[in-house]
């Protein structure tokens, strides 16, 4: 939520996870992200990176390289086009959209995970989580999720909340976040008529949905409201 360089270090220090998102990148916000990321690393708070439009411009490519090199990232949450840009492979993508290409995403995700020592959560019709030694595929969700701008950014924030309550196991956190998010998308799509009503129903679903999987240390009755309470220190 913060981008002023005067406060981001403090904000990061009172949080339990930091989500860096380069959607509206400029030189000042990049400097602020570097400060926030380093503060989070110092406090051992997990950092989630959403490299929005990573391959779209030289500025974004350089920014992502700088962030990945200087900040310890726990989870890189991206789409296929962004992963291809980070991995330096050919991909036909324009702006923030995933685009199209012909690469083995599991192999690429594993390579990027190893190279930067982080968990890759690459999303699309099928999501892939790779941490360098293990790869998990997550299906589900609904194609409507690809029709609403900001769904990836919101997912990165939700992934940060899951990682906040499981900082020692970001792989499990990313997997559970994706399952949770996809299930919410399916439910919302079942009762919506298009992207407009889907968006509204999806937010309600995120708020009210119970976390059904119990592999993550939650009680069955706990919902996302509890997750948020646990993920904010104050
Ligand atoms: N065709 C699809 N079918 C099912 N789920 C999808 C589809 N497209 C995107 N999603 C879901 O939407 C969410 C956002 O992913 P994505 O659209 O890849 O992000 P981004 O906005 O960064 O491109 C993820 O949970 C993903 O699983
Ligand atoms: C329009 C916009 N503003 C900030 S990021 C962004 C686009 C990326 O959003 P997403 O990839 O989540 O659809």
Could you characterize what this model shows?
By secondary structure, the chain is of the alpha/beta class. The chain has a single domain (8-230), classed as Ribokinase (UDP-N-acetylmuramoyl-L-alanine:D-glutamate ligase). 48% of the residues lie in helices and 11% in strands. It is built from nine helices and six strands, in the order αβαβαβααβββαααα. A six-stranded mixed β-sheet has the order 1-2-3-4-5-6, sandwiched between helices. α4 packs across α5 (105-116) and α6 (151-165) packs across α9. The protein is globular and about 45 Å long. The site of adenosine-5'-diphosphate has 17 residues, from α6 and α7. Pathway: Cofactor biosynthesis; thiamine diphosphate biosynthesis; 4-methyl-5-(2-phosphoethyl)-thiazole from 5-(2-hydroxyethyl)-4-methylthiazole: step 1/1. Its EC number is 2.7.1.50. This is hydroxyethylthiazole kinase.
> Looking across the biggest beta sheet, what order are the strands in?
1-2-3-4-5-6
Overall number of structural domains: 1
Q: Judging from the principal axes of the Cα atoms, what is the shape?
A: globular
Largest β-sheet summary: 6 strands, mixed
What sequence of helices (H) and strands (E) makes up the elements? Answer: HEHEHEHHEEEHHHH
* Rg (CA only): 17 Å
Instruction: Find the CATH superfamily.
Output: Ribokinase
Q: Please, how many helices?
A: 9
Oligomeric organization of the protein chains: single chain
CATH third-tier fold name:
UDP-N-acetylmuramoyl-L-alanine:D-glutamate ligase
Which regions contain 5 or more consecutive residues with pLDDT less than 50?
none
Work out the strand percent.
5-15%
Class by helix and strand content?
Answer: alpha/beta
The CATH C-level name is Alpha Beta
The level of helicity is 40-55%
Distinct bound molecules:
adenosine-5'-diphosphate, 4-methyl-5-hydroxyethylthiazole phosphate
Q: Any guess at the CATH architecture?
A: 3-Layer(aba) Sandwich
InterPro entries: Hyethyz_kinase, Ribokinase-like
Pathway: Cofactor biosynthesis; thiamine diphosphate biosynthesis; 4-methyl-5-(2-phosphoethyl)-thiazole from 5-(2-hydroxyethyl)-4-methylthiazole: step 1/1
Protein name: hydroxyethylthiazole kinase
Catalytic activity: 5-(2-hydroxyethyl)-4-methylthiazole + ATP = 4-methyl-5-(2-phosphooxyethyl)-thiazole + ADP + H(+)
